[in-house]
Amino acid sequence: MEEKLVIIGSGPAGLTAAIYAARANIQPVLFEGFMEGGIPGGQLMITTIIENFPGFQHGIKGPDLMASMRQQAIRYGARMITEDVAEIDLAKSPFSLTSMNGDTYSSSAVIVATGALARRLPLDSEKRLWGRGVSACATCDGSLPVFRDKPLAVIGGGDTAIEEALHLTQFGSMVYLIHRRDSLRASKVMQDRVTKHPKVTVLWNKVVEEFLGDKRISALRLRDTKTNEPLELPVAGVFEAIGHTPNTAFLKGQLAVDELGYLVTEPNSTRTNIPGVFAAGDVKDHTFRQAITAAGSGCMAAIEAEWWLRENGCGC
Predict the structure, then answer these.
(1) Residue 137: active-site member
(2) 307 burial class (0-12, 13-18, 19+ CB within 10 angstroms)?
(3) Shared domain check, 76 and 129
(4) Is 251 domain-assigned?
(5) Does any domain span residue 128?
(6) pTM assigned to the model
């Protein structure tokens, strides 16, 4: 049976697309994912309290928000498949998809909303304290009361790390920027801003060897890459800014990507280089990476998919 629209990904972008498409009577099928690219529901499933998603004046837990969005999509007629898409053929429409269990599907249109995974340090102590003062998004979590007027740390040396450090100066008593080299990768203007900021201290040639703390992060154990000297740094929050990896491997290069590997869409649109294929959320956005911007682009993708299906006589 040929589907009208298949949505791949179950974060804010994918679920918002499913809500809009279902309300347009498109009866979308959504692949939630299973193991590849993170857990179903995306990165918000490992986020404690979200305070900047509109409509929740007291905040909402990440898993609760995703569960509510999922039920809303189902209520309007979206069908959920809790599997990964193992293969997809975009050579011609209808497009062919194969699930991880070997089931095949065809669809007139596809929305790719598979997100991007934050790169994290491969330490057991990091996993243990993840969500307990350890985060990959200062914009999302930095303003939480547990971080206010306390020493904070950012790990990384690129523009994103510097932006995160500068953002945190509004809340923390001091922000430590931890970088493994003796020079930053960031643009000159960003380097000047961070090195001249009175609340930022750059710790050069340092790597993290262990995250310390019981129920919450309390300190970092660092090592100097040149002298091998250890350093214990007391902090109340740690933000990893060492990059993201967009979840596009399953596409096998069929869609255009930028120099960082993110899907490329037309200006002011979610249309990719293949007609009938749309991209939404963090898989195409390496700038904002917020739940609300992902949801907004999911809305755009669903509307553009509806237009495309109608224009191409696909029964919408």
Answers:
(1) yes
(2) exposed
(3) no
(4) yes
(5) yes
(6) 0.82
- Confidence at residue 70, expressed as pLDDT on a 0 to 100 scale: 97
Helix (H, G, I), strand (E, B) or coil at 69: helix
- Quick check: is 141 catalytic? yes
> Domain range spanning residue 172?
120-240
Helix axes 62-75, 12-23, angle to 10 degrees: 20
**Catalytic residue (one of 84, 140, 282, 285):** 140
**Minimal CA–CA distance to 78: which of 14, 129, 121?**
14
**299 included as an active-site residue:** no
Our CA dihedral for 122, 124, 130, 133, rounded to 10 degrees, sits at: -100
Q: Do 203 and 251 have their domain in common?
A: no
Let me know if residue 172 belongs to a domain. Answer: yes
pLDDT band at residue 315 under the 50/70/90 scheme: low
The one catalytic residue among 64, 89, 124, 137: 137
Helices (H), the chain: 12-23, 62-75, 124-129, 138-141, 159-168, 188-196, 291-311
Q: Which of 141, 285, 314, 316 is catalytic?
A: 141
Q: Are residues 251 and 110 in the same domain?
A: yes
